[in-house]
# Entry
Amino acid sequence: MSSSQTFPEVGSERLLEYLSTSVLLFDDKLRLRYINPAGEVMLAQSARHACGKSLHELIANADMVTQYLTGTLETRQVVMQRGCRLDLANGQATVIVNCTHTPVSIPGEFSGVMLELRKVDHLMRIEQEEQLIIQQEATHALLRGLAHEIKNPLGGLRGAAQLLEREVQDDELKEYTQIIIREADRLQNLIDRMLWPKNIPSMQAVNIHHILERVSDLVLVEVNSGLKITKDYDPSLPEFQADPDLLVQAVLNIVRNAVQALGGEGEITLRTRVRRQFNIGSRRHRLVACVQVIDNGPGIDEELREKIFYPMITTRSDGTGLGLSIAQSLISRHQGLIECSSKPGNTVFTILLPLDSKQ
# Structure
C-alpha cells in the first residue's frame, strides 16, 4: 500500500482540515490512510510519515484502541471510549482523549474505520487546578487558626526571655536571652507574613533565577557533598512583581522536601520556562513563569500525592507536614499554583506564576 496521503472522494476532506478534533482514517488492515492537521499535531507526526503505518507504530499502548477498531469493523457500529490514555510511539508525550470509532464503507472503493480523538487532559488539568485552589483556601483558613494558637505561647516565651534578661548580670548569658527574643520575633514576623491576609506582600521586581540561586546556596550549605543541584534556566524569562522573601520561602520548602526524599544524596534539577497563553485554573494568562523542582528520588505514592498539599500530611516521623502546604499558600498569594507529578526516579513540583497579574 502506498504511504501517501489518500482519502476517499466523499467531498469532505477539505472540511476535516479545519477541525480541532483529530481525525484518523484506517483501512480494513488497520493501516492509516488519512490524518487531518489536528491529528498531526496530536501525534507529533506529519501525514507523509504517518500514513501507511499501523496503529502500533503510532501509539505505544495501542492494544485497547486496536480492539475497538477491530470490533467496529466487525459489528459496523459506532463505538465510544472515554478517558483513553495514549502513549505516543515517539516517546514525546502522553495524551488523554475521548475516542469515537465510526465504520466507513464505500462499496467497491473503501472499507475501514474513522477514529476521532478529542483531548480531555487539558480540561482535566483545569478541573484539578480548581480543586487545588479550593483546597488551598481551606488550608489557609486552617493555618490561620494554627497561627493563632502559636502566637499566644510565642508571646509568652518572648516576655519570659525579657524578664530573665533583666535578672541576668553576665553579658555572655544575656546573649542567650537575646537569641530567644530574636528568634521569637523572627517566627512572629514569618507567621504574620505567611498567614495573615491583612499583610500585603511586599511586591517588587524579581528575577526568579536570583531566587533559585539563593535557595540553591542555602540548601547546599545544609547538606553534605552527596547532593547535586543542576540548573536549567530559560534566560528569556522576564522579571515580574513578587515578594522575594515569600518566594524564597516557598521554593526552599519544596527543595528541602526533595532533599529529604533523596536522603541528602541524589540530583535535584531547577528548571525555568516561559508558558504563553496558559491557564492557571480557569483563568488564562498571556505569560506564565513555569519553575520546576525535579528530583530523581523514589517518588511519591499515588495515595499520598493526592493529599500532599494538605497540612499535617507527612511520611517522616519528625516532620510537621506544613512545608508544602505553606509553599502552596505563599504561591497562591501571587495568584499562582503548585502542581506535583511523580514516578520513581522523577518527581516534579511545578510552580506556576502569572507574569501579567495585577497585585
Remarks:
- The chain is about 40% helix and 25% strand.
- The first strand starts at residue 22 and ends at 27.
- The domain at 13-119 is CATH 3.30.450.20 (Beta-Lactamase).
- The two ends are 60 Å apart (CA to CA).
